Amino acid sequence: METGSQSRHRGREAEQVAGIDSEPGTLVGALPNLIVIGAQKCGTSGLHFYLGLHPEISMSSPKELNFFIRERNWDRGVEWYARHFDPEATVRGESSPNYTAYPHYPGVPERMRSVVPEARLVYLVRDPVKRIAAHWVHNYAKRREKGDIAATVMHPNTTYVLRSQYHMQLKQFLDRYPVEQILVLDQDDLRHRRLETLREIFSFVGVDPAFEHPGFTRERHRTGRKHRATKTGLRLEELGLRVFGGKLPRGFWLAERLLFLRRPIDVPDVRDALSPEVITVLREDADRLREFTGRSFDHWSV
After folding, report:
1. How far is CA 241 from CA 1, 90, 144, 166, 246, in A?
2. pTM of the predicted model as reported, rounded to 2 decimal places
3. Before 264, cis peptide (omega within 30)?
4. 260 HSE (CA, 13 A, CB side)
């Protein structure tokens, strides 16, 4: 068990590696003290946006830095990571749902603990089956399917089921972080009790919980709005990304829809695509999460 002094020493070492000078007033970088660790398709984009509206909070751009994933950006180094955060902000945060895709991406909590041991972690969850459906829509829109729905979500090289095993994912972090530094929230609360939920998060990270902003009423990234490009549309998107340097203007998407090069996707009921064994795994994991959080999640389907 690491002592408090050892933890503080580890934090100071990480700050020095990040390029934060030990002399006061000479900050040349910063490390985050808030990380939204997931889950994918549970409202992390919306939460990232809402958090960034608070004057005491600065959220990273881009949203998903994926720094603690060895296969993604870990080799860029802590100095690269620190450059994404405002040293003047009380709270500095990022949101990378890929952090909770164990064992597809192993070792994330260990690396995170070695760099930001004092960070507060927020974990958004939702009905595990609905999360899988939203995940499928996301990939289907990008033409990443591996056959029909059943073949896709049950494929051994995909993470549909893993990412919906919330307690299993959370356990990886609880082995490295004290429970007081982790907040688990239901996406339904962020959607239907937004102000109360944001106040809870603001209190958790230590900023003014009474702050309100007109932008809190905006709905972000609803799965029901997803569209799938035709093959011609997909080729145009690839061309557009090269022309516009990685981000397409809003007018591009409107023109594509008017030309019928993008078509709306009906959100499927994926339960029939999941084997009885998988449903049992999801239900047992959800029950462990219920026990851990003390919440019933009685609106979930497992």
Report:
1. 49, 35, 18, 34, 5
2. 0.82
3. no
4. 0
